[in-house]
């Protein structure tokens, strides 16, 4: 059996191969996978193409996209027929609008309930049926249980309120504290 040093000496390839293209990180490596496999087949044509539309979101943040991909959505198709602009202003925050773009490109979007309502609003305004269904399913899904580190309610406050309610009933306080229901009185027989 060869030692590690002997194996390295016999290895004909350098540890870090030198490629011809410094911009391509896979150049010089024997790579069997393709990131494009996860992308819809009709989008693969645009994988190497430069984006030709800049979408300017709130806060001055920009998102680059392909006009022909966005034109799959009727809203953008009609917008691009009327305009020859390459810069479009979108009055939305980047994180929410990015989910719309992600849906257009990948047919996938977040399942985060905190963003689902905004996502549903955008999907309805852009008339993207699949995204409307996705956001509605996210909103209809049951809430998940909190993890060990999370507290949904302030336990100390609840414990104090419970203690005050019990105290009010046991000591028959006539004027209970605010928020505590008064003790029901017994009716006398007539």
CATH homology superfamily of the domain at 36-140: Potassium Channel Kv1.1, Chain A
The beta-strand count equals: 3
* Helix segment tally: 7
Q: Based on CA inertia axes, which overall geometry fits?
A: extended
Mean pLDDT: 71
Question: Based on the structure given, which CATH architecture of the domain at 36-140 is correct?
Answer: 2-Layer Sandwich
Strand content: 5-15%
Beginning-to-end CA distance, first to last residue: 105 Å
Report strand order across the widest sheet: 2-1-3
> What structural category do the secondary elements indicate?
mainly alpha
CATH class category label of the domain at 36-140: Alpha Beta
Q: Detail the poorly predicted runs.
A: 31-37, 148-155, 172-185
Listing every helix as H and every strand as E from the N terminus to the C terminus, the arrangement reads HEEHHEHHHH
Determine the fraction of residues in helical runs and give it as a percent range: 25-40%
Secondary structure layout plus pairing:
Elements: H1 4-10, E1 53-56, E2 62-65, H2 67-70, H3 74-82, E3 87-89, H4 94-106, H5 113-126, H6 129-140, H7 155-170
Parallel strand pairs: 1-3
Antiparallel strand pairs: 1-2
Helix pairs in contact: 4-5, 5-6
Tags for this model:
Potassium Channel Kv1.1, Chain A, mainly alpha, three-stranded mixed sheet, 190 residues, Protein roadkill, 3 strands, BTB/POZ_dom, extended, SKP1/BTB/POZ_sf
